[in-house]
Amino acid sequence: MLLELDRDAPQPTADPAFRRDIIEGFSRFPKSTPPIWFYDRRGSELFEEITRLPEYYPTRVETAMLSAHCGEVGAVTGPGRAVVEFGAGSAIKTPHLLSAIAPAAYVPVDISGDFLRESSAVLAAQFPDLPVVPVEADFTKAVALPKGIAAMPKLGFFPGSTIGNMTAAEAVDLLRTMRSSLGEGAMLLIGMDRVKDIGVLVSAYDDAAGVTAAFNLNLLARINRELGGTIPVEAFAHRAIWNDDAARIEMHLEARRDVDFTIDNIRFSMCAGETIHTENSHKYGPRDARLLLRAGGWEPLREWIAPDDMFAMILAKA
Ligand code: AVJ
């Protein structure tokens, strides 16, 4: 059962916030932009394609863990919780969780309204008796949950190592924000990627088919389309590098030559080799992961580790 988008929820931050983040980010040195702006319609489709790449292990590994261990998750959470997923439900992960924990409602929260509506409709069709209540919002800010689910105990679901996009300070803020959005007695099931072989990490973010490159470059096309930009997209190259000190993969867009362009009539220029830092994807060791959760106000209850220490799934309580 698909309920209407929650009208009380904060409106999507779309144009003004996109413009502000991009102009600000391009005005800094080095240039950097927040990864949330990857996910327009095309970007969301490209990300789905990334999750099916042979090199991109996180989705496959986490999905296998969920399918193997969701019964154990359900045994700890008990039935009757509203599952609040941060990010539009992934068609392949969410059903495993929903079928195992007997939830009272399912609330996907995502900034991309179109994508959210579509994925919600697919899930609602799969679970005809489950109230599905999509909320179009930026979950990095406090989310006002629909009134109907306020009284239910919550299970936050934050798969995919999306937390890896944040610096430690941002991640702690977000975890605390989630804790207050989800309320008393909440639990959180979170996926966190592990530090591993650098070759495996780099190829996951620089695949042979060039899908991640297209995903990264789509940001420039989106700026041109939505903000009247004149960026010569073909003058940029996708780069994925491992920053060992910060334990993260960084994605950049590197100017192949000197370039001049405008965004909303504001002039920018970049030298050959200069980059726009478009994403961080932090990886965690076992203690890092628990420390981060505790700093964010969540006490780990159980954790499941994929073979070869590829990925971790942690269930924590507020
Ligand atoms: C959606 C943030 C989990 O960091 O692995 C995938 C995004 N970027 N390939 C990740 C992403 C390039 C992804 N997250």
CATH-defined fold name of the largest domain: Rossmann fold
Helix and strand string, N-terminal first?
Answer: HEHHEHEHEEHEHHEEEEEHEE
Quickly count the domains: 2
* CATH level-four homologous superfamily name of the largest domain: Vaccinia Virus protein VP39
Distance between the termini: 29 Å
The dominant shape is globular
Structural class: alpha/beta
**Order of strands across the main sheet:** 4-3-2-5-6-13-12
How big is the Rg? 19 Å
| Main sheet summary | 7 strands, mixed
CATH architecture of the largest domain: 3-Layer(aba) Sandwich
Ligands bound to this protein structure: N,N,N-trimethyl-histidine
Task: Classify the beta-strand content into a percent band.
Answer: 15-25%
Q: Can you give the helix content as a percent range? A: 25-40%
What's the number of helices?
9
InterPro entries: EgtD (IPR035094), EgtD_Methyltrsf_superfamily (IPR051128), MeTrfase_dom (IPR019257), MeTrfase_EgtD-like (IPR017804), SAM-dependent_MTases_sf (IPR029063)
Pfam family, one: Methyltransf_33
GO molecular function, one term: L-histidine N(alpha)-methyltransferase activity
Keywords: Methyltransferase, Transferase
List the helices and strands and how they pair.
Blueprint: H1 14-27, E1 31-32, H2 41-51, H3 57-77, E2 82-86, H4 94-101, E3 105-110, H5 113-126, E4 135-136, E5 154-158, H6 168-182, E6 187-193, H7 198-204, H8 211-227, E7 236-243, E8 248-255, E9 259-263, E10 266-270, E11 275-282, H9 286-295, E12 299-305, E13 311-317
Parallel strand pairs: 1-11, 2-3, 2-5, 3-4, 5-6
Antiparallel strand pairs: 6-13, 7-8, 8-11, 9-10, 12-13
Pfam families: Methyltransf_33 (PF10017)
GO molecular function, one term: L-histidine N(alpha)-methyltransferase activity
Protein name: L-histidine N(Alpha)-methyltransferase
